[in-house]
Design brief:
Layout (H helix, E strand, L loop, with lengths): L1 H21 L14 E2 L8 E6 L7 E8 L4 E6 L4 E7 L1 E6 L9 E4 L3 E4 L5 E4 L5 E8 L6 E2 L10
Antiparallel strand pairs: 1-2, 2-3, 3-10, 4-9, 4-11, 5-8, 5-10, 6-7, 6-9
Length: 155
Amino acid sequence: MNRTILALSAIAFAIPAVAEDTMTMTNIIELGQETWSPNNAVPPGMGLMMIYGNPTQPASFIFRAKIPPGYKLPPHTHPDARVVTVLKGTYYSGVGTEFDEGKLRAFPAGSFYATPGNTPHFSATRDEEVVIQEMGTGPGTGMTYVHPQDDPRSH
């Protein structure tokens, strides 16, 4: 009886180990190996890197944005909720239909916040480069500027 229990216990512990060996990791991005692309939906200067998913598909997606010092992103909305984690620097963001320095809230590295879909918001950086990670849900996601003249895609 003891041998049977011992044998079953050994099998039970071996199964997760075998399962772990068959798992794979995807979308691996190593520090220093990032590839940043221009983002034509925002004012020039911001770099973008998709790290997971595809915004045109009905699923979650994640991207990182590298934002230079002194950058301002005019008021805009997204149809989906956005979840932001600040990875580097201090990011400033505020809610409203007009860019208002007085409404900007500082989010230092390590901060996290969520913005519900269709909420007008704006953001900025000050004296340092900032990197954020942002998650949303597709499809049909995108940016709509509160003031159409702010949209760099229309120039």
